[in-house]
Amino acid sequence: MRLKRIFHYLFLSFVLLLFHSQSWAQDPQFSQFYANPLYLNPAFAGSTFCPRIAVNYRNQWPSLDGQFVTYSGSYDQYFDVLRGGVGALVYQDNAGDGTIKTFSASLMYAYTLRITENMALKAGFQGSFWQKSLDWNKLTFGDMIDPRYGFIYSTQETEGSRAVNNVDFSTGFLLYNEFWYLGVAVHHLAEPRESFFQNDDAVLYRKYTGHFGAVIPFRRDDPEYGSVSPNILFMTQGQASQLNLGIYAKKSVIIGGIWYRFNNLTNTEFGITSDAVSLLIGIEVDKFKFGYSYDITVSRLGSIDGNTGGAHEVSLGLKLNCPTKRRRFKALNCPEF
Length: 337
Fold this sequence. Notes:
Layout: H1 2-20, H2 37-40, E1 52-60, E2 68-79, E3 84-95, E4 100-116, E5 119-134, E6 145-146, E7 150-151, E8 163-176, E9 180-187, E10 207-214, E11 216-217, E12 226-237, E13 240-251, E14 254-263, E15 273-285, E16 288-297, H3 300-305, E17 311-319
Antiparallel strand pairs: 1-2, 1-17, 2-3, 3-4, 4-5, 5-8, 6-7, 8-9, 9-10, 10-12, 11-12, 12-13, 13-14, 14-15, 15-16, 16-17
């Protein structure tokens, strides 16, 4: 039991270091990128023309003491009078068994511009409020440890703020036609301050995202028969960077997919490392979709700890009554997960 508490102390200290450090402050991770489109890129708002609801849940490293659990929900809809889509997104991230919590609520608008008969450009803008809170009562420090009896002392460490509030802004663009899509997004344009300590100016670094994919039907004359969709997604934030390579296959109502994730593409000190393999299975029936994915840890973290438990992710999606009005351009055709 004493060893477990010491490990808990070490893990929570590591988590605190991650969120306190300017270099490694990062956003929560999702593997089902297109099942949470507004989180990926604000330009996705209104991209289906149908009112859309998305709910997502992720539990990362459940076998470790202090896993990361993230919930998110979003709604978006296209409005003819605005010539674009409006969306709302909220998420809650709990790190280290809730030691550090992050809540964010966002509103976004994405203007849609027809470029050619078969191509459109969407430009999105997002405004957010977020709060990061720290439960100091769950933290343990080195001066609390007795070599024989474990954690028996009170810490002399100075407690910082329990919560940090700020506003944030993001933008994104999406270019697409019937068979491919290309997007870029920049989150945290103002790099808001997120430190719990008054004498520290740690900020949430800008996150740059680029993503590209294509939908290749098995039968050109019958797109509903089935399709395959190769994808690439790159993200960088502060000193962290990530490359995701994946492919989906859809047949009838069943969708399967696999992604491989690399880290540290821009960090010459550590070099490129493999992080995880994500396996996905999903169904899409009429206006409803359900997806489940599991991330297999292939990084050194898995080899050191033995079993992280990977990451479980569940997504639910629902499209409400879609308008039958004929439009000047088609809805975005991309994977649902």
